[in-house]
Design goal:
Immunoglobulin-like, four-stranded mixed beta sheet, elongated
Length: 128
């Protein structure tokens, strides 16, 4: 017959294990799907999840193109309204988009579309 001290230790360890597992399951574990439509631009996109209350996702954009590029990112968590952000990237620059939700989604879909901006042609001054 086990003594009370051994029984108390076993109960304490089981409770500690349950609390640890519960915290691990409650952390922000959701998949992020990034769909890119780059239209011939040389843009690198990477998403990172940050462990924070609710949900925080950072989309990092890097423009390796010789042209200025405009990107539009649409975030769809499927539990809240879709949000869209625009960023204009000059050649060889980076930009970040921070997206937060109040609740942790099951899955986050990100649609990214980038297009090169048309260069303005220099206009000649009209002679007087």
């Amino acid at each position: 017959m086990p003594n009370k001290f051994t029984l108390a230790i076993k109960l304490a360890l089981s409770s500690l294990l349950l609390v640890t597992l519960n915290n691990a399951l409650a952390s922000a574990v959701y998949s992020v799907q990034l769909k890119k439509k780059l239209n011939g631009t040389k843009v690198f996109a990477e998403s990172n999840k940050v462990n924070a209350p609710g949900s925080l996702t950072i989309l990092k954009l890097s423009n390796f193109d010789s042209r200025t590029v405009q990107c539009r990112a649409s975030f769809d968590p499927r539990i809240e309204q879709k949000k869209s952000f625009k960023r204009q990237l000059k050649p060889n620059t980076d930009a970040s988009i921070r997206y937060t939700t109040a609740r942790t989604p099951n899955r986050l879909n990100i649609d990214l579309e980038c297009r090169p901006l048309k260069e303005k042609l220099p206009t000649e001054d009209q002679g007087t």
